[in-house]
């Protein structure tokens, strides 16, 4: 977790405490995969089951992925993309995983590796279903395979001697794209959203998953029926957590997860919520991300940022950069959380016009300008070493939202941790 010593640093004219040098914020790549590059935007792939291309980091013509360690210790986020999943051309599996607890990083990376492999071997393609192309024949088959895979993987995890998952676990949000079919599965509070066009051809978000937290009545009732307790701590009155019947631990902020076997007899489950969406020509991309992104950026801000990046290959990296800046400006006294993002683009996109400096002039109140050549920020950190070109009009809604917050002295949105978002059913952000 790093040394307990700290030093001061100046940001926007104010001084804050910064952790010691061994808490250095670096790029959170998968060390378990022997990736030695400090820049996890480099392409690292291997061949998986049935000849699939397994992408551990980097990008392809239709995918972008990036993860970055926060200020809380080792990066507990993981991510993965399988192309030609189950051996079928142009079938994609994408997933992000957010570990928690003492061994959360190990559990997240284990599930990240094992889940798509188990699903690929378990799910047998059905030629008849592909011909029919209807919701029932495609979705129901995938749904059964996903639920069975999640449950069996959790059982395997409980018997894995090399992993201490009694009080450690991970979220999981995954998608499978097969032709025009999109199958989404979710466990915990990571999130998937769709960027699509409305009737005015404006990019808008559609939230594909529900944040599965104990604040949801149905989730809380299940936990309490099984002897678990749900309550918030005094310092976080708007963040209900899950506790054991007779001990004030572990205080889990989600109601479903892999691992966390101390709560599995008390209402915590590993059954995912599986949903289906039939894609249309108006749908442009899907974004999967851990809560390090959603805690500080709204769904709308995320789709505006992703849609505005000229090179899709760096979209995930740009989004993580915005999230990090949001953490520093909205919660300067808090430690930046780990962030992991996977973007799947559903079509080739035409180039957009404008530069990031255009955006910075319009939104200077809420984000630092990124030098297009990768020069250092005020804190002496090189953020992006590549050209970033964005469309000012595409961030018009972000400007409108954040323009309303200048009077509140907030640089990136008016939502606080204690405020309820209306992105999806009025869920509480944590």
From TrEMBL:
Return the Polar residues bias intervals: 357-366
Region (Disordered), start-end ranges: 15-43, 357-376
GO aspect biological process, one term: regulation of intracellular signal transduction
- What Gene Ontology terms describe what this protein does at the molecular function level? protein serine/threonine phosphatase activity
Gene3D superfamilies for the chain = PPM-type phosphatase domain (3.60.40.10)
**PPM-type phosphatase domain: residues covered:** 59-346
Bias (Basic and acidic residues) occurs at: 15-36
Q: Which PROSITE patterns match?
A: PPM_2
- Please, which domain of life does this record's source organism belong to? Eukaryota
Q: Which residues cross the membrane?
A: none
Q: What is this protein called?
A: Probable protein phosphatase 2C 65
- Output the lineage of the source organism: Eukaryota, Viridiplantae, Streptophyta, Embryophyta, Tracheophyta
Name of the encoding gene? LOC107899594
